[in-house]
Structure formats: structure tokens, C-alpha cells
Specification:
The chain has 172 residues and is of the alpha/beta class. Strands 1-4-3-2 form a four-stranded mixed sheet, with helices on one face. Strands 5-8-7-6 form a four-stranded mixed sheet, covered by helices on one side. Strand 2 and strand 3 form a beta hairpin. The N and C termini lie far apart (81 Å).
């Protein structure tokens, strides 16, 4: 038995709109689907932004003590971009020293510390010696084994108080 369907052409705009909605939803679902467990969705660190109390002093610390280079910044939203040739840091000036809250790794959500690799134990010891000469750098601990080793590391606070770790991983 054949059935015939009466089709009213006045439904065409509605059908067209529905087909558009369904095809758009399908495209959106495919575009925003969850990443597969086998695919890494990021490709390394682009840059890291640090809020600092002393923009110029902190930038000078990275440039003069660590050998980094200035790579730009914004004077109207006070910032300085710096790089070691492999990674970028953006240093952002806090608005007011009176309202600035010092870093507290045990009570503030956010950055605990930033860790840098160094090429040799001699470089790590040279950094430690240079940090000892700086009045506005606090050394939390000198080079020492990290846990049971073999990594040797040290921790400081740069002129604005952010914690920085320097670590040497000896080759195996």
C-alpha cells in the first residue's frame, strides 16, 4: 500500500532553517569536540606573565644578572618583555605599592615558583655567587640536592619577591 504525503510548500522556509540549525550544530560539535586521549592540545610555553612591584629593577635583574634581553613592552600598561632566547617572560607592573600584597606560596592560588634549567653545576654556583652580591635578591637556599638528587637546585626571590628556582640536571 502506497502512502502519499501531502507537502505544503509553506513549510520550506522552516525546513531550510531546521536543516541549517542541525548542520551548524553538527559542525560546532565536531569543532569543539573533546581532544582524544592521544593528542596533546598544547605546544609548549608561549610566555609567562609575572606581576612585579619593581618593574625596572626586576627587568634589570633578568637582563644584567641572568643575561636575558629586553624584547618590548607597553608603557601605557607598564610591562617589559624579556627573553633568554628560548622563553619569554612578561613583567607587569602592579598598580600601587600601598595595595600590593606580597607573594605567599602557602596561601595564594597561582604561581608557586618558576624554575629555570642551567647548563652546568659551575653555572649554578656562579649564579649563587652573583645573587649573594645583590641587595634586593633573597636567597632561600643555596645549591643543594633536590630530594635524593641527582638534580642540584637553589631557590631565590627576585627584586619583586617572586620565587625563582635554578636547577642543574646532570646527564645520566
Amino acid at each position: 500500500m502506497k502512502r502519499s504525503i501531502n507537502f505544503n510548500s509553506s513549510y520550506l522556509p522552516v525546513l531550510f532553517a531546521l536543516s541549517f540549525v542541525f548542520s551548524s550544530a553538527t559542525i560546532a560539535a565536531e569543532t569543539h569536540s573533546k581532544p582524544s586521549a592521544n593528542k596533546t592540545m598544547t605546544q609548549g610555553l608561549n610566555h609567562l606573565g609575572l606581576s612585579v612591584k619593581h618593574l625596572e629593577r626586576t627587568a634589570e635583574f633578568f637582563v644584567h644578572t641572568l643575561g636575558w634581553k629586553k624584547a618590548g613592552g607597553y608603557p601605557d600598561y607598564p610591562s617589559i618583555f624579556i627573553t633568554d632566547g628560548k622563553m619569554f617572560l612578561t613583567l607587569w607592573q602592579t598598580q600601587s605599592d600601598a595595595k600590593t600584597i606580597d607573594f605567599d606560596r602557602k596561601h595564594n592560588v597561582g604561581l608557586h615558583h618558576l624554575a629555570f634549567s642551567v647548563a652546568s653545576l659551575n653555572d649554578l654556583n656562579a649564579l649563587h655567587a652573583s645573587f649573594q652580591k645583590l641587595d634586593d635578591v633573597e636567597i632561600e637556599f643555596a645549591p643543594q640536592p633536590n630530594g635524593g638528587g641527582p638534580t642540584i637546585h637553589m631557590m631565590i626571590r627576585e627584586p619583586s619577591g617572586n620565587r625563582l628556582e635554578f636547577a642543574f640536571n646532570p646527564p645520566k
